[in-house]
Design goal:
This protein has 5 helices and 5 strands. By secondary structure, it is of the alpha/beta class. The chain has a 5-stranded parallel β-sheet with strand order 2-1-3-4-5, with helices on both faces.
Amino acid sequence: MNILLAEDDSINQKLFEAMITKLGHQVEIAENGLLAVEKFKQKVYDLVFMDISMPVMCGLDASKEIRKFEESINAKCRVKIVAFTTNTMPGFQSICYNAGMDNMLVKPITKTTLENFINSLQFHQLQFD
């Protein structure tokens, strides 16, 4: 899969990039939400991992902008956007869904968690495409 990783922390960027590439996928990094939106408008991605707390534009606003862009081009299907967050407060998952995100993974994220999550998406794609 071709994955966009929106993450501002350089250590997390390197960690997630290594995990994703070891799983056999391509990854491109955006250091903030605005760059993620710009990259999304230029290239097709199978999956977007979106950090919530980033400079310039947060992950919630970036997800809303990606959904607006998809509508503006009459996209036939929506990219899966997955929140990467440390926020476990009750109701936060609903906030992510309302921003257009499809799922949420809570940091710290292990390689096994990431692998199982990506594999579950690939399974669903094979089942329903």
